[in-house]
Amino acid sequence: MQIKTPKFLLSSGDAILKEAVQRLAQPGRRDFLRRSLTLGGLSMLTGCSLSSNDSVDAALTRVSRFNDDVQAWLFDPNRLAPTYPESMITRPFPFNAYYTQDQVRHVDADSFRLEVSGRVADKHSWTLPELRAMPQVDQITRHICVEGWSAIGRWGGVPFASFLRRVGADLTAKYVGFMCFDDYYTSIDMPTALHPQTQLTLSYDGQILPPKYGFPMKLRMPTKLGYKNPKYIKAIFVTNTYPGGYWEDQGYNWFGGS
Amino acid sequence: MNTNPQIIHPGWLRAMHWINAVAVVTLVMSGWRIYDATGFMGFEIPAVLTLGGWLGGAIQWHFAAMWVLGINGLLYLALNIGTGRLARKFFPLSPRALAADIRAALAGKLAHADPRHYNMVQRLAYLFVMLDSVLLVLSGLVLWKSVQFPLLRELLGGYEVARRVHFLAMAALVAFAVVHLTMVALVPRTLVYMVRGR
User: Fold this and answer.
1) Where is the Cytochrome b561 bacterial/Ni-hydrogenase domain (chain B) (predicted)?
2) What is this structure's pTM?
3) Residue A1: pLDDT band by 50, 70, 90 thresholds?
4) Engineered SS bond to B52: which of A127, A186, B2, B58, CB 3.0-4.6 Å?
């Protein structure tokens, strides 16, 4: 198909083009055009990963790091998240992962060993009976998802601070990282790891943790958003090197506190 | 502060107004994208009206713009109260004068003779949007850090209630903005005052 040139362009097209070239030849105008186009671009950032502009991305990431610091400063290691009566438990507790429920991992209980590495004195791998032999606690807390919804569940297991002390972890280290059977990974700050409600969770609602909620174990933290609570944990490491996380590396805030 | 009697809005107020406008547009558009992650009120906001592209991006915009609104809002309130502008411009409120102004507005006869003077409808609308913004920031704080602000969380009825409060306060702000922009369209010289100050 041939594109017809509109009539008015046939007569005045050359003149318009000439004027446009002249205008663009002035560097001030060109800069202004470029800046105004960028401003326009700001309103059209939908549909890209974060934005189409690297410097905007970098600035947003810097603010996100600043928000990590503010949240670490706001975090009170002695302030407890609210607990709820049994009647308020959300049933069924929602399934949530970066995949659908039919892709849930099934881990073999007998061959399972929890690896512990990094800045810890005792690096032996843990069996499930060993973990179940440690003193357990139950708590009914609210899980808050980054998407906005929330649900109340009952979780039982070993207070994570007890576990870290038991393995002789360097409690002055910055991070505790987690590797999972579903290829998920995340990391948390040491003050949150030592929070009294942070729990190495082995049971849900009085039963062995079912596969859909992360068998053989998950880390449950009512002081953090859902994506900071890893399921299907296979390895724990203590480190001073920033380990990142599955969602965090894509732009979710690292501290992810609630 | 304001020695030139010609000046209707002082410079600081105009600067804050426009910073606030940018912050609010950013917060509302990114907030709509965050809302779409669950759509808990039973509808979705069309993607073209949202900012950030995906949930992680929207949250980054939202949590950057919240500092702009928070700091700008605190400075605005401090200067308004400190300079006596709040008391001078928005008070007294009189129900009788309000009723008269509403009747005049509905009849299309509400006078705009003196732009330095806010009529009762304007006073009430601007006071409302100030209080609504405070509610937005406080309910936002609960959503952001519900464990760290227990008193605020309980005052707002817990996490899930705070979430609805935040949404409804946003809807009220957007409704205000629609009326506000309609009034500006009807009396365009107010836009000039807000840009040039006179």
Assistant:
1) 9-197
2) 0.86
3) very low
4) B58
Contacts of A82 in chain B (CB under 8 A): 147, 150, 153, 158
Degrees, nearest 5: CA angle B88-B92-B96: 145
Q: What interface predicted TM-score (ipTM) does this complex get?
A: 0.92
Q: In this structure, what DSSP letter does residue A114 have?
A: B
Chain A touched by B18 (CB under 8 Å): no
Q: Which CATH class is domain A86-250?
A: alpha beta
Instruction: Give the nearest partner residue to A74 out of B57, B143, B148, using CB atoms.
Output: B148
CB B112 within 8 A of CB B193: no
Question: How many residue contacts between A and B have a Cβ separation below 8 Å?
Answer: 95
A81 has a chain B CB within 8 A of its CB: yes
Whether A220 contacts A199, CB under 8 Å: yes
Distances (CA, A) of B195 to A142, B16, B181, B189: 48, 11, 15, 10
Sequence ranges of the domains in chain A: 7-74, 86-250
Structure tokens at A206: 């009085």
The phi, psi pair for A206, rounded to 5°, reads 85, 0
Fold of B11-196: Fumarate Reductase Cytochrome B subunit (1.20.950)
* pLDDT tens digits, one per residue of B44-70: 999 999 999 999 999 999 999 999 999
Q: How many CA atoms lie within 13 A of A218 on its CB side?
A: 27
From B37, B51, B147, residue closest to A79, measured CB to CB: B147
pLDDT band at residue A90 under the 50/70/90 scheme: very high
Q: Do B145 and A71 touch (CB under 8 A)?
A: yes
In which residue are the tokens 């606030």 written?
B20
Q: What is the C-alpha to C-alpha distance for residues A184 and A246, in angstroms, rounded to an integer?
A: 6
Domain ranges of chain B: 11-196
CA distance linking residue A139 with residue A174, whole number of Å: 26
Chain B within 8 Å of A53 (Cβ-Cβ)?
no
Subunit contact A63:B64, Cβ cutoff 8 A: yes
How would you classify the pairing of strands A199-204 and A207-208? antiparallel
Does B59 lie at the interface with A, CB-CB under 8 angstroms? yes
Distance from CA of A199 to the nearest CA of B (A): 16
And the tokens for A199? 């729990």
B6/B82 Cα distance (integer angstroms) = 22
